[in-house]
Amino acid sequence: MWTQSLTLVLAALACKATSFSLDATSSPSIKTGSADFARSLASMCPAGLLPAPAYWWESANSLSALVSYQHNTGDASYEHIVLAGILSQATSANDFMMQGVGVANDDQAWWGRLAMSAAEYKISDPPAGQPKWVDFATNVYNEQKGRWDTTRCKGGMKWKINPNENGYDYKSTIATAGYFELAARLALYNKDQAASEIADAAYDWLVSVGLIDVQTFAVFDGTDDSKGSGCIDVNHNEWSYNIATVMYGSAVMASQTGDHKWVDRVNGFLGHIKDTFTLNGNLYEPFCEKGNNCDLDQQSFKAVLASLLAKTAAILPETADTVASILTPAANTMAGDFSDSVGFGDKMTTLESVSGLLVLPKGKKRAIRFFA
Predict the structure, then answer these.
(1) Quick one: CA torsion of 51, 53, 56, 61, rounded to 10 degrees?
(2) In this structure, what DSSP letter does residue 156 have?
(3) For residues 60 and 89, what is the distance between their CA atoms, to the nearest angstrom?
(4) CA 47 remoteness from chain centre
(5) Which SS3 state, helix, strand or coil, does residue 235 take?
(6) What domains, with CATH codes, occur in the chain?
(7) What integer pLDDT is reported at residue 2 of this predicted model?
(8) Would you indicate the residue range of the signal peptide (predicted)?
(9) What is the mean pLDDT of the chain?
(10) Helix (H) and strand (E) counts for the chain?
């Protein structure tokens, strides 16, 4: 429980995690490795936030990895960290619009998506009198719905919220994709047709401006809405967290609507992920790893990919074989290369990859239930 003794938890965190010879066919082996990797990650954020120079959104994703770990393994040792971390950043409006951290639409969405995961995976809600996890996610969704910008390019989410900030003119794929995914998840969770329609429209907008290539299923980074008639050029950089977010939102839409077009889209994204974001059996970020120049943000993108690969297979069992062909060798490689000295991005990626193996469906059986 989240009220457990902090002393006991800190004692557990003192254990050192090192390289691990993973047996990806053995649940006990996966759980043992996952426990080591979770301890190592949690030791970096005992109060719920990563230390500088980590960016604010990365703290949300470190907590998301611990939420995944708890759900995948049943070990609630770090539930109190998740509770403390989310509540410390929620603000009095319960919307994660923190002052002093330069909140952008994608930043807010990461925290909203974390709260949504806590709701889906039945992490203990905050104490009586405070909102439930789904309420935090709904607040973010409703605020972002009001920021859907039709003044340029007929829609899309701007990267920045403040018109005076650099990046306000950038229609960002990750901001739009995060909104799409959150809408899809709330549609499924609440059986909300209006949210489903909003998710559908957000996906269509990404296609309409060329941020999703419907032939190759490449997902590009964004487009400038200030040039010419708006969104006339596309930033063709590809990052794993963009395609992962669109893929998982599509998987949720497939489950929520029963429309096979979403299954086809998920399979398309999986094929492109396998072709572009894997190398020699490991997850790979080609736009920065090729030159060995990934910055702090980019070092954590593959954690999102690993997490959403597992979640996609869990909610859409027909994709399990393809996901396993990507995630299993990556988990083996990262477990073998792990040490406490790796950065938080590698810690998150390893934890999400290894613990995610536990929720891959066997045959056509759905491996998890998100809700009661």
Answers:
(1) -70
(2) -
(3) 10
(4) 21
(5) strand
(6) 6-359 (1.50.10.20)
(7) 37
(8) 1-17
(9) 93
(10) 15, 5
